[in-house]
Design brief:
Helix content is about 40%, strand content about 15%. The chain is α/β, with parallel strands linked by helices. Bound molecules: pyridoxal-5'-phosphate.
Length: about 375
């Protein structure tokens, strides 16, 4: 029997404490005391024995509202932003509809679009400025278009949108009566970030998460914001009728209450790590960074000119060096064979492991140069 294919997540999870986790844009820089007390108190009081308030803890809802500064928009709390994305695509799209999106992108959203019977029209953005522009979006809008997908900053490239571009895309949504899905999972990493809801409050559904900014990915909490009527239409598709995890809500409350005190340091360390990765990457022939600096906590490393495949690099770095980066194929049908994605809200020691391992791995995997005649 042939060997089963290498399962990177299974391999890495079995070695959880030995692996530098640079593969899922998770954040390992939030001081642990920010949430540990709140979680311990929940356990101590056996809060897990009872159901939460179905609509979400009122303090959490208030904190989300004030974090976004959008008092008219109603927060819906879900098990991670992922569930919010599923609900809103189900609620707002039907067979035959089109969504203007990009490639690369966070393709799980595209999968949800397809589950609703709709399809995405993916604009190729793997060239400067590595993001959508209002001109290209306008050109792509047709009679079947129902939604625009604006992920800002963008996973996987780390590109972000200037305020004027957000405004222009929001105006397109307004003028064409389209839903604007503004996924802002990484917004706390992006200086001067602008919310589309500011410009098109009626058309925008803002999807948020505490997985990345607050370092709570394992607790699975996020949600959406929309004007009350739209929020109600979407919430009909809520499968968590009895509310989301009480521990997750307590941790999110503790994190959001204090975020202004620690997020600056998290972002500064993330930027410094990004700069260290850039220096390492620039030292290796043929490798480049499409987007630098990233406005998020991840970026793509392009290997296209080296002959090294992202899958081979992912496996080699993980098995031989305990460094987990992610091959791009799950993020881009057209370009995923050229890049790996690395995330870097991590302790500097993790970044140093990458710095040590990356040049060695590339040297080990690079095909030999053809002999000169
Ligand atoms: C753009 C984007 N949206 C949503 C999510 C989902 O986040 P959550 O952990 O809140 O489900 C991710 C996770 O990586 C993401 O990159």
């Amino acid at each position: 029997m042939p060997d089963p294919p290498f399962d990177a997540f299974r391999y890495a999870n079995a070695r959880r404490n030995e692996v530098a986790w640079l593969c899922q844009n998770t954040n390992h820089l939030v001081p642990p005391e920010v949430v540990q007390g709140a979680l311990a108190e929940c356990v101590e009081r056996r809060r897990y024995e009872s159901y939460p308030i179905a609509a979400g803890d009122p303090e959490l809802l208030d904190l989300v509202r004030s974090d976004f500064g959008l008092p008219d928009q109603q927060p819906v709390v879900t098990s991670g932003g992922t569930e919010a994305l599923y609900m809103l695509t189900r609620a707002l799209l039907a067979a035959g509809d089109e969504v203007v999106a990009s490639d690369p992108s966070y393709l799980i959203i595209h999968k949800f679009v397809e589950l609703s019977g709709a399809r995405t029209k993916n604009l190729d953005i793997y060239r400067a400025p590595y993001r959508l522009s209002s001109d290209r979006v306008q050109e792509a809008i047709g009679p079947k278009t129902k939604m625009l997908l604006l992920i800002d900053p963008l996973n996987p490239l780390g590109s972000g949108y200037p305020r004027e571009e957000v405004r222009a895309i929001a105006e397109l949504a307004h003028d064409h009566h389209l839903t604007l899905l503004n996924d802002v999972t990484y917004r706390d990493f992006s200086e001067g970030h602008a919310l589309a809801a500011e410009f098109a409050p009626e058309e925008t559904v803002t999807v948020w998460s505490v997985s990345k900014n607050c370092g709570l990915a394992g607790l699975r909490l996020g949600g959406l914001l929309a004007l009350p009527d739209l929020a109600k239409r979407i919430a009909r598709f809520n499968t968590n009728d009895l509310g989301v995890n009480v521990l997750a809500q307590a941790a999110a409350i503790a994190a959001l209450r204090t975020k202004s005190a620690w997020i600056g340091a998290v972002v500064r360390q993330t930027r410094a790590n990004g700069a260290r990765i850039r220096d390492v990457v620039h030292g290796v022939e043929g490798v480049s960074l499409p987007v630098y600096p990233s406005r998020a906590n991840m970026m793509a490393i392009d290997l296209g000119a080296t002959g090294v495949t992202p899958e081979a690099l992912q496996e080699h770095l993980l098995r031989d060096h305990g460094v987990f980066v992610r091959a791009g194929n799950y993020l881009s049908p057209a370009h995923g064979h050229k890049f790996v994605r690395i995330s870097f809200s991590n302790a500097p020691a993790d970044i140093e492991r990458f710095a040590e391992a990356f040049p060695k791995a590339m040297a080990a995997l690079r095909p030999p140069a053809p002999l000169a005649h």
